[in-house]
Design brief:
Layout lengths: L3 E3 L3 H4 L28 E6 L5 E5 L10 H16 L2 E6 L6 H13 L5 E4 L4 H10 L5 E4 L8 E6 L1 H15 L4 E8 L2 H17 L4 E8 L3 H5 L2 H13 L4 E5 L5 H10 L4 E6 L14 E7 L1 H13 L6 E5 L6 E3 L10 H12 L10
Parallel strand pairs: 1-13, 3-4, 3-5, 5-6, 6-7, 7-13, 8-9, 8-10, 10-11, 11-12
Antiparallel strand pairs: 2-4, 12-14
Helix pairs in contact: 2-10, 3-4, 5-6, 5-11, 8-9
Amino acid sequence: MRRTTKIAAASMAAMLALAGCASSNNETNEPSGGNETDAGGGSGEGGSGDGPKIGLAYDVGGRGDQSFNDSAFAGIEEAANQFDATYKEIEANAGENDADREERLRVLADAGYDPIIAVGYVYSPAVDTVGAEYPELSFAVVDGFSEAENAANLDFAANEGSFLVGVAAALTTKSNNVGFIGGVDGPLIQAFEAGYVAGVEAVDPKIEIQIQYLSQDDAVKGYENPAGGKIAATGMYENGADVVYHAAGKSGLGLFDAVVAAGEGNWAIGVDSDQYLTADPDQQPYILTSMLKRIDVSIVEYVKAFVDRKAPTGYVVYDLETGGVDYATSGGFVDDIKDEIDDYKQKILDGEIEVPAEP
């Protein structure tokens, strides 16, 4: 039977607070042996000991996005430290299809990696196929919708976290004009949009909200396109927005360049990791907050369950109640409005506000 589980992430949040944005470059570790370039854009290995051998398969963008993928890598590193594990991470290539992703998972399975964690919803069909071929192995998909009997979908209530940064944007804007930049226009990122818009409108429904997606269906244009992110953000600032939130992976790095160019009085909001911590020093004064999506925690908890022989299957949901999503306070820029944001947070927890997941 498929099931949905809520997981408490708060107990590990402090331990992983600095690890959540582990890498600030776009390189993986050099592999210590083997060459999986046929199954991806590169591979790396890490960890030591006699614990589990964890496989990590990235989607396009990989490490270096200072957001989604870097948070996954932070989780793998922490899991390796906690559970005496080793790991292999394999990057993806642009323009891939399900067959390419299936082959990457088979490379890890044939090399004895178990569990295997796939980063990104696009792996869901590949996990359905490969999970059936290797029923003795355990798989997990971040943001997934796999139906494989031996797979867990590590999913997040991104709409709830986005609501909170929407409140922050509405309480901060001086122009009554804010923006949202999404990667690929689909249900996953639409949930970020829906929550953000609801948060803004909860404070003041008269605030104008500019919305732009970088692609309708191309993951590279959506999530690995900092130049496109900068162009979109620049247009929003020029059109009167003074706070812009992105949910666009590595493309969001362009937002931080754009806000610096826009100058004092303008703000950017990061996503997934606390992006203030990995931003360049000249960008940090412009990063109001970030929507925290604790991918790192979900991976550590999944590996722990695997080690305990209790690996979950079905949907494992990380929401506001369990600490799976939240907002960042680094930089101190929301200190004066924190009480108001937390009031809205409590209303969500108490069921007084139901945050939409669709625009």
